[in-house]
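Re-running the complex after MR caught last week's input typo. The corrected sequence lines follow. Everything else is unchanged.
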Amino acid sequence: MTQAYCLLSKKGGVGKTTFTLNCAHALAFSGFRVLLVDLDAQSNLTKHLLGKGKDGAFPRDPDRPDISKVMQQRCAAEDACLETGYTGLHLIAGSPDLDDLLLLNPRLAREPMRLRALLSPLFPSYDYVLIDCPPVLNWLTRMALMTAGDVIVPTQPEAYALQGLDDLVPWLDKMSSTAKLYRIVINMYRANTQLHQALSSQIEKAYPGRVAKQRVRLTIDLPEAARAGLSVFEHAPASLAAIDLFSLCFELFGLSPEA
Amino acid sequence: MTQAYCLLSKKGGVGKTTFTLNCAHALAFSGFRVLLVDLDAQSNLTKHLLGKGKDGAFPRDPDRPDISKVMQQRCAAEDACLETGYTGLHLIAGSPDLDDLLLLNPRLAREPMRLRALLSPLFPSYDYVLIDCPPVLNWLTRMALMTAGDVIVPTQPEAYALQGLDDLVPWLDKMSSTAKLYRIVINMYRANTQLHQALSSQIEKAYPGRVAKQRVRLTIDLPEAARAGLSVFEHAPASLAAIDLFSLCFELFGLSPEA
Ligand SMILES: Nc1ncnc2c1ncn2[C@@H]1O[C@H](COP(=O)(O)OP(=O)(O)OP(=O)(O)O)[C@@H](O)[C@H]1O
Ligand SMILES: Nc1ncnc2c1ncn2[C@@H]1O[C@H](COP(=O)(O)OP(=O)(O)OP(=O)(O)O)[C@@H](O)[C@H]1O
Ligand SMILES: [Mg+2]
Ligand SMILES: [Mg+2]
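Corrected-run output:
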């Protein structure tokens, strides 16, 4: 039974891409088949996975299939599933064209099920599907919501990010007749600060039962791993970041620590 | 001679709102007249400045003038300049309606000078205008670019943010026939990490003459101040954050340290 998740937030820079990348690796290293979908015109996830050229250069390739071409039906979804060099980890690439997609295809704004229709035939080939989203709640991320069963919402325990949560949750309720399952994950947690302790408790009180027990601490290992083009499990396997993320995967996906 | 700036980035969560808020306070506290424009549907800047209710509650007010109504010409720009409780600091509020604006007024996508036409009559009343933008490069932030003379681009010295810079600079060149003046500011700088030192140097080499010498360090004082609904100059006036930001204002705006 394929489990599909979208990484969603209104607030920018809370860790959507970082979580997508590292959770995907934890799942693939544990033997599961994982499909990643990069729905962000920024395409950090794609550049991370495909940017293995000299100096992490990201080879521009106008012939590369990507999610924008899939959504315009200029290529078949199964032809867009790219190998990443990691066993069991495939990627449908993002593209800058995502920003112009609505101008090219205005109808997409009224077809919230389009992405689901195009991607769900692929699902039986994967155990997990993770969709990385841009920091926006709009027609495009609505499509992601309709495609995935569940939602993971990273957040910083800080004022502006909390304001983003207050916008996101009503939007989720508005977007689907049955409220989607969503889990909030506290990221960049600085345990030794009163602010983060207080706001983390505040989030847990405001969204009871929705907040992952595992908080992911602020650590230089995560951006270092991104810089190296690696998951934190490869770059810093004994780090607090690796431990936090693996525990998070256990909590979110039931991933067994014995794996 | 009014100086207008937009705070721009493709990458989310790099510090646009934090810089807008705190630089505006530094300027207003120094006796200048400052107009803030919140162009982000998230409206963190607006909620920060107007959210002085109990528990920082942000009073919903359908009659409040905001930038969305100004752009639809449902209210005059000068009527939208709200007092903030700080001398010399005015705000044109953001609104969630910014996300639907293009659906309501599709013509706006083809009128990049519209915002400038609506706001420039206000400029003579202010010494500085700062426009806080959402993390996107599109028709709306293009309007901000056309309205402001200069651009401030906060960035983290981390891989994904650097990828955002590589998208932003060509976009700036494409958007204006004379390349807009832009300054990159390194934010959330962790001086004791090899990663941040190396990537900061890399940014300086890639954008010679464009990167502010002053880097703003990662510090809990900035999110704490945001939580308190204050600028860092009020919340933690002797902090490294206050020093870094004031020095940055000196460098960016020629703000005198004797003020
Ligand atoms: N726990 C953490 N500790 C330290 N740095 C982190 C942590 N999580 C993420 N980061 C770093 O913070 C930055 C923002 O993270 P990321 O890009 O994953 O967020 P995002 O939500 O995908 O942003 P956007 O809204 O732009 O898509 C990145 O440079 C990333 O390496
Ligand atoms: N130098 C810093 N040190 C520590 N925290 C910071 C620093 N600068 C900003 N922050 C915090 O980081 C978070 C992101 O900053 P901010 O919201 O200003 O970024 P932004 O670019 O406006 O984000 P968005 O793309 O969502 O509009 C906020 O919680 C803010 O308080
Ligand atoms: Mg991202
Ligand atoms: Mg902001």
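None of the earlier attempt is carried over here. The longest helix of chain A spans residues 159-175. Residues 28 and 86 of chain A are 8 Å apart (CA to CA).
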